[in-house]
Amino acid sequence: MNRYTGPLLIFIAAVSWSTAGLFTRVVTTDIPTTLFWRSLFGGLCVLLIVLFYNRKITVKSMFHFSLGEVVIASLSTAGMICFISAFFYTSIANVSFVYGIMPLVTYILAVLFLKERINSLAVCCCILSAIGMSLMTFGSSNLEDYIGILLALGMTIFMAALTVAAKFFPNADSSKATYLSAFLGALIVLPFATFTNIAVNDYYWLALYGLINVGLGFGIYLLGVMRVTALTAALIGLLEIPLAPIWASLLFNEQVGFLTISGGILILISAIFYLIRSKT
Questions:
Q1: Percent of the chain with pLDDT over 70
Q2: Model-level pTM?
Q3: Rounded distance, CA 210 to CA 189, Å?
């Protein structure tokens, strides 16, 4: 394996994650039904990956979770529900660009709960991200857009909280937390999901959704992150943000307004600058 293998694997994972919104445009199922099947198929896929990596794991240890794994999985579940729901209300671009503020939201939560020191770099990047968010909000034209942006923001906060929680529980197994999160998500939306009059094609797309967006993304990312630095993984992972609206534009002709693009660029610049400068 050469030095390009790790970055390439992270890039493939970012591409797979960038497809999240596309599947919501293809399927005809409602939000709970989409969440249920995507979570179920994704959770099973991750569980199979764990079994493949660790052939000696027992059934008891597979479903025995520590407090940290339960907390991380719960936050991930809440974030996932907000994330997928957001695509049903607003554009893929809006959801993707809002997610770009995640590194800075993580920093704010770390200051509040981990007592990290406040530094001028992070404050400036947070202000720049806030300006970007404002531009995106002003560029939205209806109530559904605002609901979608709020859901995307909720997802970002939950995922940032997950990152902070991981510092409280450093021994938590991320792979176990991932499939637990998926199964929790499926269980929560189960009473609201529809199981009648679903097109056969929808089942194919939803299975592919779980496989590509959860299973493939997670499995490839695990292989790649072991071969690169945390900064490299974070920066390459940010490619997911501009890729998602590009796919939406090419495949579904989903138009992105000038203010949305401007706000998204500001958010990306602030996130990249913060990640680079905070590690130097």
A1: 96
A2: 0.86
A3: 16
